[in-house]
Amino acid sequence: MAMAMAMSARAVFFLTMASLAPSARAALCPLAPTAVSCAFRAPIPSPSLWRGPAAGRRRRASSAAYGRSTFRHRLGDTASWRMTSSSDEASPASTAASSGVVPDLEPYRNKNNLDDQVFSAMSADGGLKVTVATMRNLLNEMMIQHTMNPLPGDALGRATLCALMASNGMQEEQMFQLTMKGDGPLRGCLAIVTGKGEARGYVGNPGLGEDFTLQEAIGGGTVQVVKNHPDWPRPYNGITAIRHGDIDRDVGIYLAESEQRSCALAAATSFNGILCTAAGGYLVERLPDCSPETMAHMERNLARLVEMNGDDGEALPTNLMLEGKTPVDIAEILLDGMGMEPLNQLEPSPKCGCSEEKLMRSLRLLPREEVDTILREEGKVEARCQFCGRIYRMGPEEVERRFREAKGDASKDDEWGKETKEKAGK
Fold this sequence. Notes:
Blueprint: E1 3-5, H1 9-19, H2 22-28, H3 33-39, H4 92-95, E2 117-123, E3 128-134, H5 136-146, H6 150-166, E4 175-182, E5 189-194, E6 198-203, H7 214-218, E7 221-228, E8 236-241, H8 248-258, E9 263-272, E10 275-286, H9 292-309, H10 318-322, H11 327-334, E11 340-346, E12 349-350, H12 356-364, H13 368-378, E13 381-385, E14 391-394, H14 396-405, H15 413-425
Parallel strand pairs: 6-12
Antiparallel strand pairs: 1-13, 2-3, 2-11, 3-10, 4-5, 4-7, 5-6, 7-8, 9-10, 13-14
């Protein structure tokens, strides 16, 4: 939990760092030089590189489909950066083996996207995985929590969608943190999700108006990813440069360059005033031993999806969702002619881990003289969670009582965790 308090800059820093999980603290610290030098390698140029702006903003006369409807491939594999599609049309029958069994998709239906959903499926031959997400309700909840305008909401929605899709299939206890650390007026964007679909996040400037494009609001900087699990000795960190500023294509570059995941990724939102009317995306991943015929067929399906969505690759795939297409429908379009085997689904939901106990832990990590100064000058301790907007207040008497009842070393996660469990059991 990141909080801001009415105290000195030094106190605010310590409170923020103490409230964050160890993995989040690691994300705020500089990475090893070796990791940075590897992560910033430029991708191998593609002759079909298209560039374009974010959905719903000022448009340039260019296409934004590259990276959303074609695959970003791994560095070092020069052949894989070429388009796998040939001029010869491969028949669906030769593209993927038919299992002969029609899967029951009724449990995965989500009429008119009434519920938020992350749905994943695999092609019949096991060569491709497709993940499609919709999270209109979740984004509207975040808009309310942070009193956000549409442009910051678009950024946070895209980042959360990318995090949910990129982390699909990980263990429930695992955490995936995505940070767009740019120098634009948005002042950064952060999204954190778990394997259970619990999501939270914030932007640096939620009140930013629509005088900027999304790329201008993000600015130049880095895409930073932190993955962690309670059993891991240390978190995984990855970083690449921001090259487009529209988040989804930048995350696609990150997945290709830092995690060697060949993929096509798209995420976008649609707003009517300050109300989010659609928020969705898809991630198509090439798995090991995927045949060239399967890849060629998928690229034709992706081109068909772009045509159905309209806007020359902009707002993929929210235009389709506004027409009533659900994650299952979009997955069926992408895997048409290749067979579809459903893998799983989950419903993303807002979840924040802030609490009075975490605030008190932060206070215990400050010099007692600073805490007394805050109480003397302000008459209370007040903090606001940057993730959910909840405000915590403690008076001098409550702070003193909690200091007396405190046990162990608050700087050690195991001792603090044990103390918290003991209090919860009372």
